[in-house]
Design a protein that fits this description.
- The chain has 139 residues and is mainly alpha-helical.
- The chain has 5 helices and no strands.
- The longest helix has 34 residues.
- The protein is elongated.
- The two termini are 22 Å apart.
Length: 139
């Protein structure tokens, strides 16, 4: 079993984990722990939607992957744009981490970027392996 197969066989568990992360982030927003940020809201929503798609392997087909790619790339674009604003501050010499470093938008947007790209890749590879498995079963 290759390393990627390890994750593909557990994609539904990873999907549930990402849904939980999304819900925890939304609960922090609703409870006022974090400030209202449209960038963050979109990223946590995308992570949750992709997590839901990951949980249902029966849905991993070309249409679902196209939808996941569009949603994922929108989320990744927003995460990269938010992260780049931190890099601009670094370049200007005005960057400072937030007092609560675990709530720092520079770090959280970087984490969201990694998570969203990983989710899209896993969904694409899952659909591909599902297709290969079905083709092997037909021959």
């Amino acid at each position: 079993m290759t390393a990627i197969n390890f994750y593909l066989h557990r994609i539904h568990i990873l999907g549930a984990f990402f849904v939980l992360v999304s819900l925890l982030a939304w609960s922090a927003d609703w409870s006022g722990v974090v400030y209202v940020c449209p960038y963050c809201r979109l990223q946590r929503t995308v992570i949750g939607i992709l997590g839901l798609l990951m949980m249902f392997r029966g849905l991993h087909n070309a249409i679902t992957i196209f939808i996941a790619s569009v949603i994922g790339f929108m989320g990744a674009h927003v995460a990269a744009a938010q992260n780049f604003m931190g890099w601009l501050k670094i370049n200007k010499g005005t960057f400072e981490f937030k007092d609560d470093i675990y709530l720092d938008p520079f770090l959280l947007s970087g984490a969201a970027l990694f998570a969203i790209i990983a989710q899209v890749w896993l969904l694409v590879l899952s659909a591909r392996s599902k297709t290969i498995e079905s083709e092997a079963g037909q021959s």
